[in-house]
Amino acid sequence: MKILVLLKMVPDVVEELEVAPDGKGLDLEFLRMILSEPDDHALEEALILKERYGGSVTVAALDAPDVDDVLYTALAKGADRVVKVADIEPGTTTRMAAAALSGVLRESTGLLPADLILTGSQAIDDLDGLIAPLLAHSLELPYVGIVTQVRADEAAKTATVIKEYPGGVRGEFETPLPVVLGIQSAEKPPRYVPVAKVRAAMKSQPIETAGALTAADAGGPLAELVAMNKPMVTGAAEMIEGSPEDIAGRLCGIFAERGVL
Amino acid sequence: MAGNIWVVAEQWRGEISEVSFELLALGREVADQLGVPLEAVLMAEGRKESAGALGKADVVLYADHSSLAEPIPDVCAEALVQLAQERRPRAILVALTNVSMGIGTLAAAKLSAPGINFCTDLKVADGRIEAQCVLYGGKMEATVTAHGEPAILGIWPGARSPEKGRATQAPAVEDVTVTLPEPRVRLKRYLEPEAGDIDISQQDALVAVGRGIQSKDNVALAEELAETLGGAICGSRPVIDQGWLPLSRQVGKSGLSVKPRLYVAAGVSGAPEHVEGMKNASLIVAINSDPQAPIFNVAHYGIVGDAMDVLPALTEAVRARKG
Ligand SMILES: Cc1cc2nc3c(=O)[nH]c(=O)nc-3n(C[C@H](O)[C@H](O)[C@H](O)COP(=O)(O)OP(=O)(O)OC[C@H]3O[C@@H](n4cnc5c(N)ncnc54)[C@H](O)[C@@H]3O)c2cc1C
Ligand SMILES: Nc1ncnc2c1ncn2[C@@H]1O[C@H](COP(=O)(O)O)[C@@H](O)[C@H]1O
User: Fold this and answer.
1) Is A129 left (phi over 0), alpha (psi -120 to 50) or beta?
2) Which pTM was predicted?
């Protein structure tokens, strides 16, 4: 089973986000980038599938601050090959990123064909599209999103996948291979890997690089972000301050007033 | 006719989804402001009678095809693209739900048309549609415009009240033809949720824990409060993914929608996918260590603090008051 995983870095929203001086994006200066959470699950699912069926896991990621750490971590977790897709400009939209990635997948040796192409189902900055369906379109492959489980039949060239629906309902789908899957969560929480193993990977395994389209090659964005701002607090929560005991007392009073006690 | 506003009516398991009426309400406003007709697109098999409920639209374009029996995004996008190429709408509203996710992105790619995700509102300014979007898990808002037509607009659930999208009059229904291959992706079956020990959608009081609860052990602090309040515990997706609570306790897009009289959210950031499942609770109290957490935009009362301090104190106080 040949599995390709595509990873993307996103701003860590635990940190305070600031708007850039031009008002049209995030201020990159204060940004900490982390691996998009569903992508972490996509990697985990790929590793689980490799353990189950054998084969290889190749990871490709767009260049971004701290992406090297993520790629070495992927190697330490059991990925066989990691590729950094360079020349991505800051502010690249998801559609341009998808165009760049599909270009690299087609042009680099040994990345395609793959049986399974996994990526996260959605990222918090996918303003102009989702990577998985964009890649499925440009690679002319089927797509299933919001996937939480994958069973593959290499001989039959098919996979059975579970997709999440509202209300806890799930759908079982059969798809031919290769397929592009948007992974929502892996069958198990993403594994932990000790720092020592990551350091060892840094010393022994290389990050390959591949060129990509620039924003200009992709033709510029079709969706234009004209202004970004922090949400105006609409419902404006009334903030309660004080010691935990004071807060608890106030809340109890409110509960009683509202008849929930 | 070219230039119309379209709403993709989501149908799933024999029903038109609530969100379709929300989109109709929003689409109606945009169409009226632009002075163009509103059309609903219903793609299904043998469900023409459902079109009658979509009277908020001037016309329902009904595409009947055996490949459209289930809303497979690949297939729906192909059908939508064929119709859009023929009829050239100005904008297409698609719901951002687990059912429809992917349709908008695929259609936009196939049409080389602009796609805008995460829309909470649409405005018309100088004859142009401006989308208001929520990004970064609710931490930023953006105003976005499209270059090119049709603009394919992914709309979050909750943009309008579904009541505003219902109508008593029946719309004109036009049969439209699409040519579709056999779906590559096939639904084998639906798996019903395992019945939980309790149904969280039937509780008066819910205490929700998010990733901020930090460990499985700490979940007990919330459990105690829930018990003391005579309610139940529920959680956000990461808590379920970690296995700290069963799937039957998940609130949000992939989980359940709840409407309790009291919802205490502890260590929940307030991502749109969570908020869509709990925003209609009568009284929302949020405890979060981050003063910028988006949950404070939907909560009625907010506490900036450590859930591990506030939860036990609150349990004590409720106990004392109950006597
Ligand atoms: C298709 C799709 C479907 C989804 N469906 C759902 C769904 O059904 N339900 C759902 O919940 N999510 C769903 N999500 C995920 C959603 O996008 C968010 O990732 C998720 O809701 C975040 O959960 P959280 O708030 O617990 O975690 P985080 O966003 O990580 O937030 C943790 C919060 O805890 C706070 N915190 C940390 N320490 C403390 C402390 N000591 N005391 C108090 N606060 C603290 C932090 O400030 C932070 O705000 C879905 C996503 C997708 C793409
Ligand atoms: N101008 C553009 N802006 C954004 N995305 C683009 C643009 N041009 C092409 N793409 C993306 O690149 C992918 C490949 O496009 P194509 O070269 O038409 O096969 C498509 O799926 C588009 O999503």
Assistant:
1) left
2) 0.93
Is ligand 1 within 6 A of the CB of residue B255?
Answer: yes
Q: Do A169 and B193 touch (CB under 8 A)?
A: yes
Which residue's CA is the nearest one to ligand 2's atom 13?
Answer: A99
Q: Round to whole Å and give the CA distance between B196 and B282.
A: 24
pLDDT one-digit tens code per residue, B131-156: 999 999 999 999 999 999 999 999 99
Nearest CA to ligand 2 atom 11: A99
- Residue nearest ligand 1's atom 40 by CA: B306
User: Tens digit of pLDDT for each residue in A157-166?
Assistant: 999 999 999 9
Cβ–Cβ under 8 Å, residues A3 and A57? yes
Probe site for chain B from A119, A240, A241, A257 (most B CB atoms < 10 A): A240
Confidence of residue A214 (pLDDT cuts 50, 70, 90): low
User: What's the DSSP call for residue B43?
Assistant: E
Which chain A residues are within 8 Å of B259, Cβ to Cβ? none
Whether residue A143 and residue B133 make contact (CB cut-off 8 A), yes or no, is no
Does an H or E element contain A139, and which?
helix A131-139
Q: Which amino acid is at B279?
A: K
Pick from A95, A160, A166: CB nearest B98 = A166
Q: Taking CB atoms and an 8 Å cut-off, how many pairs form between chains A and B?
A: 274
Q: B249: Cβ below 6 Å to ligand 1?
A: no
Distance B210 CA to ligand 1 centre (A): 6
Nearest C-alpha neighbor of B293 from the set A28, A37, A19, A16: A16
Chain B: give the shortest CA distance to residue A103, in Å: 15
Distance CA B41, CA A218 (A): 31
Q: How does pLDDT run across B180-198, given as a tens digit for each residue?
A: 999 999 999 999 998 878 9
The residues near B86 (Cβ < 8 Å, ≥ 6 apart) are none
Residues B65-69, mean pLDDT to the nearest whole number: 97
Quickly state the pLDDT bin for A217 (edges 50, 70, 90).
low
- By the 8 A CB rule, do B48 and B173 touch? yes
The C-alpha atoms of residue B177 and residue B113 are separated, in whole angstroms, by 22
Would the CB atoms of B98 and A165 count as touching at under 8 Å?
yes
B311: Cβ–Cβ under 8 A, 6 or more apart, which residues? B207, B221, B222, B224, B225, B266, B287
Confidence of residue A254 (pLDDT cuts 50, 70, 90): very high
A119 lines ligand 1 (CB under 6 A): no
Q: Which ligand is nearest to the CA of A100?
A: 2
Taking the C-alpha atoms of residue B259 and residue B280, their distance in angstroms, rounded to an integer, is 5
Please state, rounded to an integer, the average pLDDT across all residues of chain B.
97
Residues 6+ apart with CB under 8 A from B242: A189, B216
pLDDT digits (tens, 9 = 90+) for A88-100: 676 688 998 898 8
Distance CA B211, CA B217 (A): 13
Q: What does the pLDDT read at residue A87?
A: 66
- Beta carbon of B212 within 6 Å of any ligand 1 atom: yes
State the distance from the centre of ligand 2 to the C-alpha of B257, rounded, in angstroms: 36
How many Cα atoms are found within 13 Å in the side-chain-facing hemisphere of A201?
Answer: 22
